[in-house]
């Protein structure tokens, strides 16, 4: 996959050399969550659960994409064909590890628009994601972007709200 324009930014597939950058970007977002008093990745040992080796494997599967501002990585997203939290009853991509540099407000929406287009072009029916149940602001954000709640999931200490956006209309 080549580069895709996103306003003044662009998306590209991540490569192995991007792993430290991805981890630093995730840590920056985790620090932001702490500063804002949010309960999300900052309370679930995120980078212990998803270490460098995990991201290297996902990159090898061509599942990880970076939002770039010139040579600077400013956002990350992974798109998977299956997700154990879901029944996988629809042809879907599953969004994981969506994070942006807090200095780029609105970038999350742009990355999701990229993911929707990418999934639609791959013939997927829906784009699915989940969000922390106790994060009301994030719930409102996803609902405003067309991702209504369709169920719940529990994965260890994580309790999430499953969300799904149809792509055929």
UniProtKB/TrEMBL annotation:
InterPro entries: Acyl_CoA_acyltransferase, Bact_Acetyltransf, GNAT_dom. GO terms for molecular function: acyltransferase activity, transferring groups other than amino-acyl groups. CDD domains: NAT_SF. It comes from the Bacteria. Pfam families: Acetyltransf_1. Keywords: Acyltransferase, Transferase. Residues 9-168 form the N-acetyltransferase domain. Gene3D superfamilies: 3.40.630.30. The keyword Amino-acid biosynthesis does not apply. This is N-acetyltransferase domain-containing protein. It comes from Anaerotignum lactatifermentans. The lineage of its organism: Bacteria, Bacillati, Bacillota, Clostridia, Lachnospirales.
């Amino acid at each position: 996959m080549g580069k895709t324009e996103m306003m003044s930014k662009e998306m590209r597939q991540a490569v192995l050399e991007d792993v430290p950058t991805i981890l630093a970007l995730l840590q920056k977002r985790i620090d932001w969550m702490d500063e804002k008093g949010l309960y999300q990745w900052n309370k679930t040992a995120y980078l212990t659960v998803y270490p460098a080796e995990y991201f290297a494997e996902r990159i090898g599967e061509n599942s990880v994409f970076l939002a770039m501002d010139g040579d600077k990585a400013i956002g990350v997203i992974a798109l998977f064909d299956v997700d154990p939290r879901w029944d996988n009853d629809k042809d879907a991509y599953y969004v994981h590890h969506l994070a942006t540099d807090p200095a780029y407000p609105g970038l999350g929406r742009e990355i999701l628009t990229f993911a929707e287009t990418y999934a639609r072009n791959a013939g997927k029916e829906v784009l699915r994601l989940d969000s922390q149940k106790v994060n009301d602001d994030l719930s409102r954000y996803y609902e405003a972007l067309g991702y209504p709640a369709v169920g719940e999931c529990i994965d260890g200490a994580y309790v999430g709200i499953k969300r799904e956006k149809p792509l055929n209309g």
